[in-house]
Amino acid sequence: MSAGMKKMILLPFLCIMLSHMAAGQECSNQCLCPSTPPQCPPGVSLVLDGCGCCRVCAKQMGELCTEKDLCDPHKGLYCDFGAPINRRIGVCTAREGATCVFGGTMYKSGETFQSSCKYQCTCLDGAVGCVPLCAMDVRLPSPDCPMPRRVKVSGKCCEEWECDSPIRQSFLGSALASYREEETYGPDLSMMRENCLVQTTEWSACSKTCGLGVSTRVTNDNRECRLEKQTRLCMVRPCESQLEQSIRKGKKCIRTPRLSKPMKFEISGCTTTKSYRPKFCGVCLDGRCCTPHRTTTLPMEFKCPDGQFMKKHMMFIKSCACHHNCPGENDIFESMYYKKMMGDMA
């Protein structure tokens, strides 16, 4: 059979499939949503569908889209339907924006790529943001695994946990032994509860040096004495803030400035119900960088455009420290330059 004949046979089938797909994506009068929202892959936004009905994983660059299945708005994507009369099926396309250069390669705005097997990155109007593909969990010592440590496994990209047996077996020695990036505050024998030695890691550094990011920690401070990962929002400083202009004459740094006017925080289109005047970490003129030193964690309530409310915990800065232990230029994965954030057990 010739190639032309194959195309003539396949074309009608393709048209029928696309027609059925478009019909299935039309909005109905009733919302039939799953009991739990879908788990989206790393870097894919969870958004409200075009019918204003259910939360779905946003379509990505080059994927088919409809008026119901929306393209990822946080990556500047839109559904290109081609001809104006065709409003049924389109392709997710990036809006015009600045390109990104990463590792000697140029990427279009809205394009997603893997910088390595450990990170997936997205170019958005000249800026590159990355999310880890490997698990970032922290494992605390336990009786069955007193000395946990991450090891490189042959043929695998991500490191895996391995349990070493200590030379000496003792309850306190087992609890104290740890090989991990985040140090614990314990064990504190005063926190000893029935069959549970409470341990909590320090909060990790904020995932972004400006704008809204996340910070995590691990604790077993719960009724089940079960390890759980806790997350809080954080903002070291607003992006595009002209903090250098606030440095007093004769000074080299502005360490912990506070906003002059109240502001509201925003995440995925949802805005805090209250206004805040938070402190931020400032900047220096002599090459030093300023990072959080003392912080506290407070609950916040957000209101979304669809009328729903959600509660998140947020890091609030008490004081910052300015130092020379700064990350290298374009080192977007470097977070060890942060000083330890002390005095925050909330």
From TrEMBL:
Domain IGFBP N-terminal: 23-95
GO biological process, one term: positive regulation of cell differentiation
Signal peptide range in chain numbering: 1-24
Domain CTCK: 253-327
Pfam families (UniProt xref): Cys_knot, IGFBP, TSP1_CCN, VWC
Keywords: Cell adhesion, Disulfide bond, DNA synthesis, Extracellular matrix, Heparin-binding, Secreted, Signal
Domain VWFC, chain residue ranges per copy: 98-164
GO cellular component, one term: extracellular matrix
Location of the protein in the cell: Secreted, Extracellular space, Extracellular matrix
Record has Cell cycle as a keyword: no
The keyword Disulfide bond is assigned to this record: yes
GO molecular function: heparin binding; integrin binding
Principal location listed in the UniProt entry: secreted
Biological role: Major connective tissue mitoattractant secreted by vascular endothelial cells. Promotes proliferation and differentiation of chondrocytes. Is involved in the stimulation of osteoblast differentiation and has a critical role in osteogenesis. Mediates heparin- and divalent cation-dependent cell adhesion in many cell types including fibroblasts, myofibroblasts, endothelial and epithelial cells. Enhances fibroblast growth factor-induced DNA synthesis.
Similarity comment text for this entry: Belongs to the CCN family.
Subunit-structure text: Monomer. Interacts with TSKU.
Protein name: CCN family member 2
Lineage, opening ranks: Eukaryota, Metazoa, Chordata, Craniata, Vertebrata
